[in-house]
Amino acid sequence: MDHYKSAFSFYARHWKKVLLFGITILLPLSVIETFVSNYFFNLFSLVGLPTMGSFPQFIFSTVFLMIAQIPFIYLVRQEITGQNATIGQAFEIFFTNMFPVYVMGVLLALLTIAGTMLLIIPGLIILTLLIVYPYVVVSDELRWFNGLKKTVEIVKNHFFSVLGVTMVAGILTMVINFLFLFATLLVTKVYWMIVLVQLLLKMLIVPYFTFLIGSCFEEWYGFGYEEEYSF
Prior knowledge:
By secondary structure, this protein is mainly alpha-helical. The protein contains ten helices and no strands. It has one domain (2-217). This is Glycerophosphoryl diester phosphodiesterase membrane domain-containing protein. Keywords: Membrane, Transmembrane, Transmembrane helix. The chain crosses the membrane at residues 58-76, 88-111, 117-138, 159-184, 190-213.
């Protein structure tokens, strides 16, 4: 529970930077992800394969989520190490690591889909093993397969903790999305307004859960676990 409170407190302290990165990075990525995902879903639906359309949606959603977290992970890391988080450096880190995280995000999504099609559990294991890859990239500047190797090493030692936190974050996100969608539908049936509310909601909740997992990640990583660490 302490991690949840700490993440909220961190969010409140850095709300201006959260809003800036939300508008300049997270929101544009959300628009692109929504457009591309819906395009492929509708494309498969036209040929009578709507289920297949969910696979591209999952891929783009996973890639979007991993890339969008980068500047917010940077904020967490700077706070924990006691360094000043500058806007310029945040953008630099984002653009430097965007492509490696993008490629690994695609790989993660494909492996998860393949594992899920086998028996669901392998897909869940793969997703858990690789989900914190962006945190390793930002924390250690380990990209590509070096970062992948380090990610697996960390998660193997804290597998159920990582699984638990990511599942709670995922479930809470779905519940919040559903409640806001339901509330929006009570007010309007206009499609673009519904999409806009969902985009703005995503812009607000993704940073929080990034801070939550980021604070947990530092504990799994073995940094900032002592008394002197105050997130």
